[in-house]
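Sample entry follows:

_____
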Amino acid sequence: MDPMSGGRQQRQAGGAPSRLRVFINYRRDDTWAAAQLVYDRLANSFGSENVFLDVQDVQPGMRWLEEIKSHRASSDVLLSLIGPHWVSIMKAREQAAVAGPAEDYVRFEIEYALRPTSRIWVIPVLVGEVMPLSAGHLPRPLQALAKIQAAQVRHERFADDIADLISRIEAIARQEQPPAPEPAAVARADARSPWPAAANGVAVSPPDAAHGELVLGQMVDEGTVVPFLGSRLTGNHALLAEDSGPPPGAEELAADLARRFGVKSARLELPEVAQYVYVMRGWPDLYRRLRQILKAEYQPGPVHRFLARLPQALEGLGLEKRYQLIVSTTFDTTLEQAFDDEQEPYDLAIYMAKGPDNGRFVHFPYEGAPVSIGVPNNYGKFPIGVDGELERTVIVKIHGAADGNIGDYSIKENYVITEDHYIDYLSRSPIENLVPVQILEKLRDSHCLFLGYTVRDWNLRVFLKRIWEEGRIDAQSWAVEPDPDALESQFWKRSGVDLYAADLADYVGQLHEQLSRKAPEGAAQ
């Protein structure tokens, strides 16, 4: 690791080191004493006027935040002091920020200095016996911090460690300034993620390579794609049976219930058929048949496998690991099974239509006990940072789940399936009182990829309208269906979604093929 890899600029080429301005970044509950000692030694070497520490330089009555911002912007070197509680304090502030103002100025200072256009050298300083930071445990804007060789400040070697730190700061002053990027290079960088011109209509055509590159660019490079998995993943052989076959979709469930209970309807809509069975035969009969159908051992298909293998596939290609928020409208557990097969960790959020947590989402973290989310707009324990970056995959099941146990938590009769269920589910107001705020914000800030999800069904259109005002998604989004018709095209058009016609197995196969060509130059294949 290059000890100078955190630097972005130089001060004076050759000769004696120039006087640098040093900003000390620290957490008071973590490294307050060490910050004081470091300040004293650096002030002796570089002059107190060139070393900034808030408790030393911000006098009573001064506008402390503006003063700190001013010194940070005019500094040449930022020392980030990292003690044993540095990461845990940052995560606690992330969670607190969901409920109300809880700015983490320490983090913002580091992010500011790590910007690509910054001319501030950043040196992480490990206080005590703290282990070096791991990029995988940091929010994306801070991950560069883990790639910089850290300095150390240890009690038993304080004098030697400070001498090494001073030498490193002095060496920074002798580094040569890199040339500014050429305008053409900047233009090429901006052109790496081209956005196609907006179209007035929605083209029902096969997805081409340009579409695949656009989706993968947002999914892999930015981490801003939320896949929505609908009940029609099995249509037209989109999910191929590997052992006992794919799970039934909404149409298959509706047809089975209609045949068994004698429902006569021109078009079989699952909520309508389920409502008929519920009213005419009662919930026990409806539930018993659903349990018989869904208790079978279904196998994950290509869509599930593609999503479950994505984090490890990126790592194998030498790319940055990405995790996704995945929304599922199905009851079965094939998506979870795909992640379990790949030993890929994930959190679950399941809406509960029955039982003691009726009307709430329950969070099943990868490690730890399940949490019933009583106040959705005040819950911040999903592995989603304030910047929308995910530390693990989060699977959100918005219509409940099939019978089963997750640890000691028993799920039974948990289906949003009848018209009454949907009316109760969708009429809760506001939506912030139903969907946890971290999930809601991630949805609204992301591009959506709808796979096997149709807006022909009224209940699904209402859900979109509740999440996005007027049902129109702000970020460019896409839907892929095997055989969309004109009505489906118009519905997607009104939602601001580009519609493509493709077999879903072929579609994810095309994405996988294009992904395999995204490996960085020189990376192992």
